[in-house]
Amino acid sequence: MSPRRGAFLLAASRLALGVAVLAAPEKVTARWLGEHAADPAVRYLARSLGARDLALGALVLATLDHPELGPRAQAWCAVVDSVDALATVAARSALPLAGVAGTVTVAGGAAGAGFLFSRRLARP
């Protein structure tokens, strides 16, 4: 798969997740957060994260073919995904094990792929 195609698919997935979390925050986050997903404050925060992912996905798609901004946007998304994975690990004792494993796998994988795509997109 080309770096551009991979970055596109990662951004499209981020957009889809953002829309899903905005539309149904409790349903999307229940496996990740367990009983905490029903808390109104958690739903609010989840919607904020959904909006973040929607905006980041749109940013990557808008800059994908720009030789300087595309790789930078991809790298910053990878930083965000790294923080998501690390924050989940830090809170693991309060979260369902399956949610921790799934989130660390998805966020960590997205971070690794994002850094790889960023580096490969930056090559002439």
Written overview of the protein:
By secondary structure, this protein is mainly α. It has one domain. The protein is 82% helix and 0% strand. Helix 1 crosses helix 2 and helix 3 runs antiparallel to helix 4. The longest helix has 26 residues. The chain is elongated.
Properties at a glance:
5 helices, mainly alpha, elongated, 124 residues
| Biggest sheet architecture | none
**Count of distinct strands:** 0
Structural Rg: 15 Å
How much beta, percentage-wise?
under 5%
Number of self-contained structural domains: 1
Low-confidence stretches: none
Any idea what the shape is? Answer: elongated
SS element count, helices: 5
